[in-house]
Amino acid sequence: MLLVGEKTTLAKASSNFASLRTVVPMSIVRQWQLKEGDHIDWSWEARNGEMVIVIKKVEHFGNQAGTNTQIDRKTRKTVKKN
How far apart are CA 57 and CA 40, in angstroms? Predict the structure, then answer.
């Protein structure tokens, strides 16, 4: 198993929400050829007392019927995107 890592700093995402943000390291941006507006799928699991995060570039954002969705910031519910 190849382990590669970088350290980033968390910052408050917005004064209206309790989430934090960080940068995507340039090595990941280059590897996946990411650009502004791309979507990333985050999943995680606990392994041996540590949280392991898996991130994947999302090629097709939306459900199987092809309808794009987004999260409503106020209600935190999934809504159809026009």
Answer: 5
Whether 5 is in a domain gets the answer no
Residue 69 has pLDDT above 80, yes or no: no
Strands (E), 1-82: 11-12, 20-21, 39-47, 50-58, 69-71, 78-80
Is 7 within the bounds of a domain? Answer: no
Parent domain of 76 = 14-80
17: Cα separation from own chain's centroid: 16
Residue-wise pLDDT tens digits, 45-59: 999 999 988 888 887
DSSP state of 59: S
